[in-house]
Write a structure and sequence with these properties.
- This protein is mostly beta strands.
- It has one domain.
- The chain has a 4-stranded antiparallel beta sheet with strand order 1-2-5-6, with no helix packed on it.
- The mean pLDDT is about 80.
Length: about 80
Amino acid sequence: MIPATVQMGRRLAWAKVVATGSSVRTVKLDDRVLFDPAERSEVELHRKTYILLRERDLHAVAAERLQDGSTGLYL
């Protein structure tokens, strides 16, 4: 039995950054970002669907290179 008050873990997803706003500080074009699919909005432009995210809703950004002892993720 699982109590009704238990909160199940959420599965996060990866996406590629294709555009940023003017006040974005830590994310660049072509970065891979980790986000919660439940905290997103979508917009369709020219028959393509894009996900809109706020920078504060990102959980991690994948680093291009791994250094010794590094996890390869940063915020």
